[in-house]
């Protein structure tokens, strides 16, 4: 692929020629989280554990017509962050490390279950695991681990 083709692919027209620019600029703040998490339902919440589910919508599919890897990573990030609150942490901090192993695919209208567990939440660091499964078949779609630096109060 030539360099300009790569640029066009990433920018989708970009700059002044971008017909979507005004639409994108007019989107509400934190649109990305809502775009990914719209339709997410909490099935279980308890200290150190969070289980939720959603039906894979068409908008979250990649060119191969299965759940986009970036969406999966974002769910590991967002649901993994949320489970930190279940153990009483006042904030979820900032990501230090996140990894995702992609093991299977999820397709449009598949029911996906996401289970997040705290592995450790201390004064400065929180570590969680997140697993995405096909709710019907129980096949693991992805496993993730997320490490977050939790805000430490200033000592001044």
From TrEMBL:
Keywords: Hydrolase
Organism: Tripterygium wilfordii (Thunder God vine)
Family: Belongs to the thioesterase PaaI family.
Matches recorded under Pfam families: 4HBT
InterPro entries reported for this sequence: ACOT13, HotDog_dom_sf, PAAI_dom, Thioestr_dom
One term of GO molecular function: fatty acyl-CoA hydrolase activity
Keyword Ribosomal protein among record annotations: no
Full protein name: Acyl-coenzyme A thioesterase 13-like
Location of the Thioesterase domain: 65-140
